[in-house]
Amino acid sequence: MRFYVPAAFAGLATCVYGTPVPAEGPVNSQGVPEQLPKNETALYPPYNYTTGRHDLPDLTGIPIKALNASKKPWEIVHPNSNRTHRFQAEASCGGPTATNPSTFWYEQITHDGTSPFINDNNWVVFRNVVTDYGADNSGNSDSQSAIQNAINDGSGSGNSRTSNSLGTTGQPAVVYLPAGTYTINSPLQLYVGTVLMGDPVGGTTIKAGSGFSGSVLIYGKDPNQDSTTNFYIKVQHLTLDSNNVDKDTTFTLLDWSVSQATQLSDVVFNMPNYSSGHTGVTMPEGGSGTFMGNLQFNGGVVGLNMDNQQYEGKSLTFNGCTTGILVSHCYDCVFIDITFMNNEYGLDVSGGNIGFVALLDSTASSLNTVVRAAAPSTGDHSLVIENFVKGSSVTNVVTANGKQVLNNNVQGQAWVYGNAYVPNGPNTGAHQRGTLYNSPRPSVLTPSNGDYLVIEPPSYKEYDVDQFINVKQVSGYPVYGDGDTDDTNNLNAIISMYAGCKILFFPSGTYIVTNTIFFPAGSRVVGEAWAAISALGSNYYNPQSPNVMVQVGNAGDKGVAQFSGLLFTVADVLQGCTLLEVNIAGNNPGDVAFWDCHFRIGGAAGSKVQTNCGGSPAQCKAAFLLGHLTSSSSAYIENMWGWTADHDLDGGHGQTISTGRGLLVEATAATWLHGTAFEHNTLYQYSFQNAQNVFAGMQQSETPYWQGNGSPSIAPAPWSSITSSPYYDPDFSNCDNGDAQCRMAWFTYINGGSNLFLYGAGFWTFFNDGSADCSNNGVCQTNAVWTNDVSNLYWYGINEHLNLNLVINNGQVLVTQNNNPGSWGGVVAAYLTDS
């Protein structure tokens, strides 16, 4: 992620924090630090990174030219009511009640979302392309201009969304297409902040007209941004159709060259049968993606052309495509719950720059070859197949360089093609060419036919609009979401009143909270365009006794708690803030779940972290911990990005931010992590402490760019390690005191526990102290993964970039880059250990 320093920011001088942030140290009887420094800190110019190839980070952002400078939540928070917190739910009303209505609730609910930090009080988030822009949903006329107008509209700001002037986060737009068919004769162009949504009740189709001009139906990538900075874009509940375009013409339904915090879900791609030219999804400019799921591809020459750094693809169906999935480029890809039917090839991983690919819980019928692979002797093109069932009329399950190497089902075992580290095996690993290893999945992770749990993101289409509550429309409990009103007490009251009764709708905006927001059992929450909950105030100052911003349940609670489309963030530098704590478990698998929910520390308008964190890491200890899955929890998480900003999405401020910790997992009952990414946190990105029964598909991480040789802070600094319960921080005692390249954030830190089933990991290091010129012959970081005293660890696919040691096991170097060269640095197909 590259950063260009605009001349306008080159001479910025001293800034003063609006709220003092205490250093770690003595506290009084109320837990408040005794000394509160002024925090008058120079806003240093940010690092000047050099540019590089498209799959390296790009540190650019979109300045908000229409910034609302009057919004300063870190200085002035308008008071709200003094209602007391209610941390227990009211008696359940037995809801919500499903009635399967003929209309989609989202079309009918009151839409009063805002974009608080741009200078436009009349910004419209929800745009109905038919009623507001005159699109024709009968399919009889060209609707391209009407839909594009809805996408482009600046709604009175004087700056169209095409102008590249409203920031990455300042231009939320839900472009809603009611049920029907929309014919377009030229491409649609999306921008960051766009949600393109159809009607899942009546069905919405966007169809290329017979006179279509162009080779792409929808450009999902914002043209103003590099693919690695295309964040916050969503396409869902649509059918895309190219059957009117000649089947042999080169044509793409969706260009999806995007990165984290994007969602592609519940989309059908219809292409001509026996096509030699049509592709459903392509990524011609790459990207740094995380997750896509619940997609169906019919016809075409290729369903999904994967050309991205890393991805998890879940619940994908390919019917009649010549090739279902063509992996042109992927350092780390995991595909789970895939159905191949009537294909020549199901999954083609025979060429391109490929590190590791896993195929899990999948089936195939009526095709020539399920997996077309290559056969290198290094870490390149590593392949794992687990829990695969071959249906009728399948000629080959796997071919490598054209020769059949597998033609059987793979059930209860993992088939490994690549470098493997196994109990009683050589310390240097061994290259396997199709070896089977037992993979005894615990039943709590596989509630249906031995498959890992997969759940489609809920649209709640089965509920009528009267089963929803807009949190800004509850009489007597005003909630604003305006970025400068304290909404804490009324949000807690509303959540308590309606838990187990209604589904809560959070319109787009920023909801400032100064104390814990508590979601009890029975909570169901839908956020619009990543509605943000943002912490502020003295309750979050003390890292000796951190406070939780969003708490889900109490220890021992059971029930439903589901969240979609939310963002968790901070409005100030809050070294005592844990953003999310989950304590609750469900009565059924998946009762507790998060879909498309993300964390963001800094890098955006509306936070003092954005404007005051261009100095040293010690001057910006912005949050204590992102997410905590406690020992009593059981959660299903899908598509989650925990990002401490490495650059400013909404301007040119330097972002040298130190968040203490990424995701801490202590859960033992069952945890599912589908397509997650945690980046730039100081001590670790993922920590599993005595955790049990965990599935993780595709973890992606980067270390803080300011760490490493030359950095002013050597881990654990600027934090103090809390090595006891409940945090179990690493103390870096395996490193010499002054070894800055060793004392960098662990990507994954595992102590104790059992039954951990991890598939795919993209662990990338790019810089030492902001410089791409790493010492030690181009190695930027010494160690990637720590495992200690863990039993039944089954880890398939560890990929790293510029790391010397992939795995330290029980204090000893076990897996190294030198012994496992491949792809972007080093690749291991299987790391299996019982101790």
From TrEMBL:
Residues 152-169 have a biased composition (Low complexity). The keyword Ribosomal protein does not apply. PANTHER family: PECTATE LYASE SUPERFAMILY PROTEIN DOMAIN-CONTAINING PROTEIN-RELATED, POLYGALACTURONASE QRT3. Residues 1-18 form the signal peptide. Residues 126-348, 475-531 form the Rhamnogalacturonase A/B/Epimerase-like pectate lyase domain. Keywords: Signal. The keyword Hydrolase does not apply. Residues 137-169 are annotated as: Disordered. InterPro entries: Pectin_lyas_fold, Pectin_lyase_fold/virulence, QRT3-like, RHGA/B-epi-like_pectate_lyase. It comes from the Eukaryota. Pfam families: Pect-lyase_RHGA_epim (PF12708). This is Rhamnogalacturonase A/B/Epimerase-like pectate lyase domain-containing protein. Residues 137-151 have a biased composition (Polar residues).
